Amino acid sequence: MPLTLPFEIDENGVEWHCSEGLSPYLSAIAAMEERVDRIASGDASEAIWLLEHPPLYTAGTSARPEDLTDPHRFPVHEARRGGQYTYHGPGQRVVYVMLDVGRRGRDVRAFVQQLEAWVIAVLGDFNVTGELRDGRVGVWVQRHDKPLTPAGLPPEEKIAAIGIRLRKWISFHGISINVEPDLEHFSGIVPCGLAEHGVTSLVDLGLPVMMTDVDVALRRRFDEVFQSAG
After folding, report:
1. Which of 63-77, 142-156, 182-196 has the lowest mean pLDDT?
2. What are residue 76's phi and psi, to 5 degrees?
């Protein structure tokens, strides 16, 4: 199934697609993988796809069975991306990133760092300080509005997940940012295998942010982070 949604093309030739409503997971994965193959063969340009999924859990290549604490709550899909268990659902902006990492320097670590910087820049547009932590994938925020941990530190909660895969140097899967998902839905898994940390969202932080606001920030900050590509 090809990715045939209406799209815009940015100044670097990257197509930006945005789906309305909730996109079925398996159909979206099929469309993404078909597009990756076309990019690799030179038959299509790079693409960014913004979408939301119905409630579901995905298992990355490092997922541990014991971290799926409620396996019958939502559908569970093998994602074939890096990482462990994650949740996707309404109110979460999923960003599938189909970029030519080969043309962009063939440095996977640097590419992941660009994705992290992109998320942090987007959060900064809403006065949220996103941070990275050694040994933890994704982007985190400190909750100074909550009681200190037993170690005397502000609790840290995850606000964005990152997980990619490469095929012939073309990336797929990507990032997800919690805008206003039902945070209780995360309770069926141990997100990213880290039971001692919670999950938050922009709205949970007290910010009246809409999905369209996040989309505008994603577009605006993309070129700043990836401008050295090509």
Report:
1. 182-196
2. -120, 130
- Tell me what pLDDT residue 229 has: 46
192 is catalytic: yes
Q: What is the mean pLDDT of residues 153-174?
A: 94
- Torsion over CA: 71, 72, 73, 74 (sign): positive
CA distances from 196 to 5, 64, 82, 92, 192 (A): 40, 16, 21, 22, 11
Write down the catalytic residue from 192, 199, 205, 214.
Answer: 192
Query: What residues have CB less than 8 Å from 43, skipping those under 6 apart?
Result: none
In this prediction, residues 194-212 reach a mean pLDDT of 90
Closest CA to 157 of 169, 142, 179: 142
Residue 110 pLDDT exceeds 80: yes
Query: What is the spatial distance between Cα 93 and Cα 178, in angstroms, rounded to a whole number?
Result: 6
pLDDT value for 230 = 46
